């Protein structure tokens, strides 16, 4: 087999060619939530607070099941590099099986989310709004998970352009449909937060159909959808063994941000709404790092498939430097113009506008502080997944986010009297510890192919 060019320039071209469409796709995916936040922010502060809480809760459940979908990416990448189309098909099919089972189970907690949110101290009107959204959005869980499996499969085969265009189209459709349903245009009733949820379900089903049709027509040699009903327990175990730790690692990180949303709800409705704005902005910049991390997963998985340690090292270095340079740029923007960014999310006639902008500006400035460490931790996780090292990172994530991040958020927020700023400084602390521990794991051990 011919060895690929392993120069730094070649790696940079390859990472950017693979990663930029994934970045665009991820940005368009986040735009779905940002659109909901903007539209519902214009609708009412209660609706904005409710969707902030609802999307945090939905995401926490989603990422647990998505672990098995994300595990498909490195497994297919390694199989494809080795020329094993059968193995690529086997693990992808069993990814469908595993996420389908999870998606069916996930409806229960989403349906009863209102009682859960009241139990953790959220205000009744916000909890009710969140439940109204989640009861409808629960039907988006299964198609969203199936879409994630297809995204992993196509990314591993370096078919990323279709992901970009499908997701961009979905973002535009969601904006239009959400505007119609939330505010009641063209003679339809104004459904508010329920309208946003209906739009979410519709768009996820549409994206699933588009990607499934593309896969069947563009990659017929994989015969991905033939005999889907046949179990393959060996491949299922391979996906579950990797996907379980990936999902729980993502839960540990996502749980940190979800816990921060819960604590912001204890501070008040306006701080929670401001938290939602800051999170949406931070999520937009994070999508660049996530896209580069996904590209690094594919590149690392292919290096694993051909046993190329030198290529893995150089590729990892290049991807990390690209991500960190972008993080420094976004840090500068967040610190320089936080008020300009926050006002995009607030209606000029909102009674709580001044308080919301004041709280949001402070949180966006703090969000600038964790740009570098957030980029470092997600990039390293992508590299670790590429070489199929997922169990140890789970333990490191739990330590960083739950034994450090959450306690620091609580202490600074409520005992040190810093409120929302203290809660966000806890996020910075947890991410800093995670990035240090994960980078140490990869560069000192996991980069040596064959020992994990």
Give an overview in words.
With 452 residues, the chain is mainly alpha-helical. It has one domain (8-446). The protein has 16 helices and no strands. It has helices at 8-43, 45-81, 85-111, 113-119, 124-137, 141-156, 161-183, 193-218, 233-267, 269-306, 309-336, 338-343, 353-369, 371-386, 391-415, 419-446. Helix 4 packs antiparallel against helix 5. The protein is globular. The relative contact order is 0.14. The model has no long low-confidence stretch (mean pLDDT 87).
Offer a concise description of the structure.
The protein has 452 residues and is mainly α.
Task: Describe the sheet with the most strands.
Answer: none
Number of helices: 16
Q: Structural class of the helices, strands and pairings?
A: mainly alpha
User: Which spans of ≥5 residues are poorly predicted at pLDDT below 50?
Assistant: none
How many runs of DSSP E, i.e. beta strands? 0
Q: Output the radius of gyration.
A: 21 Å
Let me know the average pLDDT.
Answer: 87
Beta-sheet strand percentage? Answer: under 5%
